[in-house]
Write a structure and sequence with these properties.
heterodimer; A: about 230 residues; Cyclophilin; seven-stranded mixed β-sheet; 13 strands; B: about 325 residues; alpha+beta; Jelly Rolls; six-stranded antiparallel β-sheet; 4 helices; about 15% helix
Chain lengths: ~230, ~325
């Protein structure tokens, strides 16, 4: 449930679902997201220009020439939210190549976690991940939760350029850099798979909230010869 | 008949196509983009008789040098811009912003630079010949979304122009007065209590320098370190244009049109909607300060801003 609705500036409402991060709270965020998207599409709510679901927040941006915070807040408070979150979302398999040139932060990880590279990879590949949200850059999935033994803080100084396709971990989360971008996550490998495709106009992001993701290792040869 | 186009003789620093922005895609990580200065983008379209949501050419600091091919057009430039029109007979005219001009086949338009601002807009009557992506012409160069495959323009590129009839050229002008005010009005952010009392006092009383790290994604400021007393990270959550985040180093960052849709730094404040155009136009080396207003005040200021925009738009009609 929403604990609090605050204004984020004068053109967005900030719905706070609490400070915890877990699938139940995130499902609740997605239920609100689905329902408000639907109402916006059907023109039942006026003026909403964007919705940003995250682990435990939902931000509703609106056009200040059409509506305002007070109106949006009252609509959200009076919304009867249905269970629309699909339990059986897609299961997606993502190839990952972890040769030295791709796994930029294994030295740091082996030092911090006191585990060798093989063990870290084994623990990483073993789990199936849940997609909490998509964003920061186009199509970047925020996945979780990683094994407790491979959780590590962000880099002290973020990289100015993280290569496209990089797979990073921090805290209990994993992500995929869909484009070259600045970033501070610990990079363990790289995927040749396209995670964001503009040509798929209706569903450009391969991985969406609620999807399950499993990684499997490929060789450098397989990486270089990857064909979709 | 051959299609009319601008041949790019010099691309300028960051020349892209923009419009009102691309909406309803934050949830997959696609930011709004669109013209940094929304009012000047609208005025540019208005001066050439276009619909206000037509695509325009946005440039930053040094603009493009263009040669017109295969048509006569009606164009206008808005912003605080130094530009010249080089007629085919080599006659050079000093350009004036906020009025429209007739440009003939073979003439050149040299947008030399912005003056005390960062961005300017070039509109062409009838618009540009482009494809919309997700209902918008805006370019986001980081995600390679929009016209020109999501890239800024390079030398020898062509920007195609929709054929339009300029036989009845009518001069239009707007008497535009830019607000030169380095006080940026903000509303308290959702993580206001992450910062010490002294930090908040400094935030509202000290000047901040606009650093060289300023682009369409955001502006990094430098000044009195904003001390965080709670946690320098939050669980990543959505951002909007105008959010001011403070990372661990204590230097605020203002989010602009191409910002990442999600961020993990505490938010100290949000720039009010009415001041976003002015913030976008800040240039490196300038000093600014922040003033707190309530939500209600912000809404009233925005109403006044919208009415003023309409007043300008009516002037040229």
């Amino acid at each position: 449930m929403i604990k609090n609705i605050l204004n984020l500036g004068d053109a967005a409402a900030y719905c706070d679902f609490g400070s915890e991060v877990n699938e139940t709270i995130n499902n609740n965020v997605i239920n609100y997201f689905n329902q408000i998207s639907e109402l916006t599409k059907n023109e039942k709510i006026e003026g909403i220009t964007n919705l940003t679901p995250s682990y435990n927040k939902l931000i509703i941006s609106y056009d200040l020439t059409v509506t305002n915070f007070k109106k949006i807040k009252s609509i959200i408070e009076n919304l009867e939210v249905k269970e629309t979150f699909k339990k059986n979302n897609k299961e997606i398999k993502i190839p990952i190549c972890c040769t030295e040139d791709f796994s930029l932060d294994f030295d740091r990880l082996t030092r911090k976690l006191k585990l060798n590279k093989d063990k870290i990879l084994e623990l990483y590949l073993d789990k199936e991940y849940f997609c909490y949200m998509t964003g920061f850059i186009a199509g970047m999935p925020f996945l979780g939760d990683t094994d407790k033994n491979i959780r590590c803080e962000r880099l002290e100084t973020p990289r100015v350029r993280v290569p496209k396709g990089s797979i990073g971990i921090t805290e209990q989360f994993a992500n995929i850099y869909t484009f070259e971008s600045p970033g501070g996550w610990n990079i363990i490998g790289n995927t040749p798979k396209r995670i964001f495709e503009i040509k798929n106009l209706n569903q450009p992001a391969l991985i969406n909230p609620g999807d399950k993701v499993k990684f499997y290792q490929i060789t450098k040869d397989e990486y270089l010869n990857w064909n979709e | 008949m051959n299609k009319p186009y601008f041949k790019i003789l010099r691309p300028g620093i960051n020349t892209t196509i923009q419009d009102k922005g691309r909406y309803n895609l934050y949830h997959i990580g696609v930011s709004v983009s669109g013209a940094i200065d929304q009012r000047n983008y609208k005025l540019a379209n208005c001066l050439v008789g276009n619909n206000l949501d037509e695509a325009v050419i946005e440039f930053a600091y040094q603009g493009p040098h263009l040669k017109l091919k295969n048509a006569n057009i009606n164009f206008a430039i808005t912003g605080d811009i130094f530009f010249k029109i080089i007629r085919k007979n080599s006659k050079i005219e000093e350009g004036e912003c906020y009025r429209n001009y007739l440009l003939e086949e073979g003439d050149q338009l040299d947008i030399i630079s912005t003056k005390k601002s960062a961005y300017g807009y070039l509109s062409v009557s009838g618009g540009l010949e482009l494809q919309k992506l997700w209902k918008s012409y805006s370019t986001n160069t980081k995600a390679k979304i929009g016209p020109n495959n999501g890239n800024k323009y390079s030398s020898d590129d062509k920007i195609f122009i929709t054929n339009s009839d300029v036989k009845n050229f009518l001069e239009k002008r707007i008497d535009y007065k830019a607000l030169i005010d380095n006080t940026i009005r903000v509303i308290k952010g959702t993580n206001f209590n992450y910062f010490s009392k002294q930090a908040i006092k400094n935030f509202f009383n000290k000047e901040f320098l606009v650093t060289n790290l300023a682009d369409r994604m955001g502006i990094r400021l430098k000044g009195h370190k904003i001390e965080n007393i709670k946690n320098t990270n939050i669980k990543s959550e959505g951002l909007v244009k105008g959010v001011i985040q403070v990372p661990a180093d204590g230097n605020p960052i203002i989010m602009l049109s191409d910002h990442g849709t999600i961020g993990g730094y505490p938010k100290i404040a949000n720039v009010i909607s009415a001041d976003l155009d002015a913030v976008g136009q800040l240039t490196p080396g300038s000093n600014i300060n922040f003033k707190e207003v309530s939500l209600e005040e912000a809404e009233n200021i925005f109403k006044a801003y919208s009415e003023e925009t309409i007043k300008y738009l009516n002037e040229s009609n």
